[in-house]
Amino acid sequence: MNFKTLVFYGSYRSDRQGIKAARFIIDQLKQRNHEVIFVDAKEYDFSILDRMYKEYDQGQAPAKMEELADHIRTADGFVVIAGEYNHSIQPGLSNLMDHYLEEYFFRPAGIVSYSAGGFGGVRAAIQLRAFLSEMGMSTISSIFSISKIGNSLDEAGTAQEATLTKRVSQFLDELEWYEEALQRQRKEKGTPF
């Protein structure tokens, strides 16, 4: 089965390490025949939230915002990649994602967290789980955390540790299970609202 999966990434830093995690996940998804849309906050560069997508009159939202809304509405699921900033998620990530709401409803999200240290950004992942659930996404139970990202992945996003490739397989198996189940439910029974 083929899935359309959006990969959200929110760092604006000039020497951002998390881009390696994004490249790794994108490659793993493509190997599984996903249609992958990379949603890089730095590329979309929405200003600080003033108006949500839904607050524009139809056809009046900026072109990039409209394009992303269409991708979100037609996605089967999401992977959200978050570095840990002060025990929470990056402001660029939350700002990007906050521009939308109903578009996310009834789709699963997998969380990838990372950090320079040994905890792998799990404190950010815990914050992110509540954030994504509030936006109407079902977060899968597994969190894919990457510790010491500077050494775990090279610039191309190639794993430098065999355990990463092994662990990501189980994470993506679970995401795909939810993508298929919720896709089927949306098609056959619609959504509660």
UniProtKB/TrEMBL annotation:
SUPFAM superfamilies: Flavoproteins. Keywords: Oxidoreductase. InterPro entries: Flavoprotein-like_sf, FMN_Rdtase-like_dom, NAD(P)H-dep_reductase. One of its GO terms (molecular function) is oxidoreductase activity. It is an enzyme of class 1 (oxidoreductase). Residues 4-148 form the NADPH-dependent FMN reductase-like domain. Its EC number is 1.-.-.-. Transmembrane segments: none annotated. The keyword DNA-binding does not apply. One of its GO terms (cellular component) is cytosol. Pfam families: FMN_red. This is NAD(P)H-dependent oxidoreductase. The lineage of its organism: Bacteria, Bacillati, Cyanobacteriota, Cyanophyceae, Nostocales.
